[in-house]
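Please predict the structure of the following assembly.
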Amino acid sequence: MTLRQAQDGGPSTALLTDRYELTMLDASLRDGTAERRCVFELFARRLPGARRFGVVAGTGRLLELIRDFRFGQDELRFLKDENVVDAATLDFLEEYRFTGSITGYREGELYFPGSPILTVEGTFAEAVVLETLALSVLNHDSAIATAAARMSVAAGERPLAEMGSRRAAESSAVAAARAAYIAGFGATSNLEAGRRWGIPTMGTAAHSWTLLHDSEEAAFRAQIEALGVETTLLVDTYDIREGVATAVRVAGAGLGGVRIDSGDLPTVAADVRAQLDELGATGTRITVTSDLDEFAIASLAASPVDSYGVGTSVVTGSGSPTAGMVYKLVARQDDAGGWVAVAKASTDKGSKGGRKAAFRTLDDGTATSELIAVSDGFEQLQTVASHPGARALQVTLMAEGEPDASYEGAAGVEAARAHHARVREELPVRALALSRSDPAIPTVYVDAE
Amino acid sequence: MTLRQAQDGGPSTALLTDRYELTMLDASLRDGTAERRCVFELFARRLPGARRFGVVAGTGRLLELIRDFRFGQDELRFLKDENVVDAATLDFLEEYRFTGSITGYREGELYFPGSPILTVEGTFAEAVVLETLALSVLNHDSAIATAAARMSVAAGERPLAEMGSRRAAESSAVAAARAAYIAGFGATSNLEAGRRWGIPTMGTAAHSWTLLHDSEEAAFRAQIEALGVETTLLVDTYDIREGVATAVRVAGAGLGGVRIDSGDLPTVAADVRAQLDELGATGTRITVTSDLDEFAIASLAASPVDSYGVGTSVVTGSGSPTAGMVYKLVARQDDAGGWVAVAKASTDKGSKGGRKAAFRTLDDGTATSELIAVSDGFEQLQTVASHPGARALQVTLMAEGEPDASYEGAAGVEAARAHHARVREELPVRALALSRSDPAIPTVYVDAE
């Protein structure tokens, strides 16, 4: 997709928005409610796929996209031509820049049902229009990271590479590579993710490389000529046993690795390992890449596999391609300036009104609950912020419209990855099982008033 | 995601690519195989989710992205700094522009297992590097269109709107809106899809609009003030029965519509219809939007619902977020200039070598088979091209590197939507059932030699 340039900065992200946000903005500017201070919260009612923990991802990307959430002449012209909003609203949008504050979970942090992953405070007008963009980014990236973390747990110390770009839309593939890296993957096949976010990239050859050549041997020779014997040769285009024999004959026993992309992997991996050892290639590594997900990875734990390449399942969230997070108005000021907690009342989609402060309670370093203090006002929450034996989960991501740059760019990604590795250590052992379950720790609400 | 500008045109798409494409390119330039003419085919081994037909989408988008597949100084610098390729390959990439030909299924066309959805012919060097981009676009967009078409079938004459942007990564949301529109949806909530592709946009208000106000009545009054009585009021923030009563009291019996986003929809829709009729609002339409998929839509066929809004399920392909298509080398020239059919030999991922020509055989206007003629050479296929009683499925999308502009932009989207509506009429009735099944028509291979 080609986005045109906004008045400054990167391509405008302002129209990555549901029309009703602007319709509401338009109506609120007419009746004066546009200026009411509001608190919106982004949270999940449940974890994707009945998993035991969720992983927040996308935060750093979102901050950058909010920088570019500006309405340039192209965007305004479209809104005018389509009669989406009136002239007064066009004037408002021309000057639009988010000036409020955003607090939230650090990228890489674990989350549970109800966790206030993002809290956006500002006027109704400036906060409502960020709904779609914030949800798009966090729903997608967190779904990928949550699936990727389980694969990372299943892989243990063995390296994992993300290779799923072809099974995701071209731009979300880049975001997926980033989310997987934050959740424990070590590399990606996606070059743009390497350029944009500094993620290590990898890849050697496909089956087409072998088929292009007059023989498998010619293909292997050419690859080694270009990449050296340390490269990884794909040995399953024709017959795997012959492929391995040819690989070692061509490269010698110092061959870096072989890759297997088909067949019954536990059997094939054992056979290939035995054959390699027999040929003296005891240091040659085995990479497997055939339709792996967290369950397939776990089932290979006892097999002589050295690393995994994961495609479709990680970029599609392994059955849960979206995290199902919502962005809800939870508190607003009334005309007298007092804060009012608000929430939808319906039974199946009810939510808890009021601003939240969130803590992870720990017992000897192990997480025991997601403690969420609820308040209609802001001041009361400060008194809960020093809850003993608990780690405060929210940080300031944006203050008066200024993002904290430490969460952005490649440095933000590395920090998120490190944070994730750290907080995953706090999980109780039962959280690491792959079967469907309730969340690993309960969400406990306390009233802060 | 922010993509930097390439040397000309839109942002470069060249790094939306798996590293191994460039590694293979690099090695092929060294050993001379880079210049071998090749035919790559993009096809699916099976339909997503055991469905009865697939819908091709993304073709027009892909043609535009291939225009921007150029390596500018930023892209080259990254590849050099990361030692992805050598200096000779950097020189090649600096001049890179696809000069081959692409034929394929028209966007909106139906497809079945083995259908040659895209056929890319050129040198190995120029064709191999398009693999990731082509698969990313077609796998995503076709998965969405395939799911959307089933929803469109289930909805019958009732209008369908796509509202799932928040549950998809921000850029794929735009592509998803486009794919759903091609497959029969009538509108989208996504403003960028409106600007970029000319798709009708819609939307009025969320629950936050009601919660922002001191009462539901105040919210409804303000919305009607801004949008007129023809607007749609969201009536389920508090109590639906009270919401409907308030809506009609405020707007009068001429209220355009009410939207219901929660509850047991068949029951609620019947109750709301009865209440509206009782209040004299017999022309007020009912829109439902709560977690709908094709099955929920079908189950509402007998309910008094006037239109549907679909979110998560359409943008995530209703359980099948990727179409699982692959891009395989199927034929190449040898040193003597003769064509050689090639294919991977493994049992579980085998494919059929040789260039294909595809036809849909019809009996009295109803599709009976996907007829695929296979040949090692090009000339022989011409003789099959006039197969009697069959519709040829492939068109020229790009000739000598020049895309056919009629497939691009908003006009391309409208043409694809019209084409889809037309060819869906050819499906046998059994193809329209929603249950899991074999494909509605068999794929039949004939040898053209």
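Residues 174 and 192 of chain B are 6 Å apart (CA to CA). Confidence is low (pLDDT under 50) at residues 1-8 of chain B.
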